[in-house]
Amino acid sequence: MKDGLITKHPGTGDGVQALHMMRQALFLICVSTILAFGANLLRPDGLELPGDWSVAARLTTPEGESLLISLKDARHLFESGHAVFLDARPPGDFDEGHIQDAVCLPVQEFDAYFADVMDVLEGDKVLITYCDGDACRLSKDLANLLQEMDYPKVKVLHNGWTMWKDAGLPTGGAGAS
Questions:
Q1: Strand pairing partners for 129?
Q2: Is the model's pLDDT at 70 over the cut of 60?
Q3: Is 16's pLDDT higher than 60?
Q4: Does one domain contain both 63 and 148?
Q5: Model confidence, pTM
Q6: Domain that holds residue 27
Q7: In this structure, is the dihedral angle defined by the CA atoms of residues 36, 39, 45 and 50, taken in order, positive or negative?
């Protein structure tokens, strides 16, 4: 301050100062949030964070029935012939590789494919839907559609294609083993 006047530094106009203040405020909010979550985790009586985002929770019906099937159980059903595997991925992905004897029923083209596979779905077999990747929702969406159509035995093999392939289990398509 010089003779009652506020002097500005060169290049520090009002816009630059406002931007600088917003960055500082954002930084303080981020640090405060991280500290708050950390303190909550350390407290024995900490608040529970809302929602269960586990795979098991995401693959549970509103009635509490789990749609999730383990690779071990899916393999057992495959080997005993008591399951029909339904690949929910697009046809191109199916053609590149799929679980041996699986049926292509892409959820995005369900209506176009369903009539062709309807006969395979009849009977007492467990319908096991699968897609690829941890975040893939196609198998769950397909399972939900089938349940809405009153198919009672529907399960989801989460990240099914990758798990099946990595376990060295029988495959079909271009990448067959």
A1: 86, 156
A2: yes
A3: yes
A4: yes
A5: 0.70
A6: 1-50
A7: positive
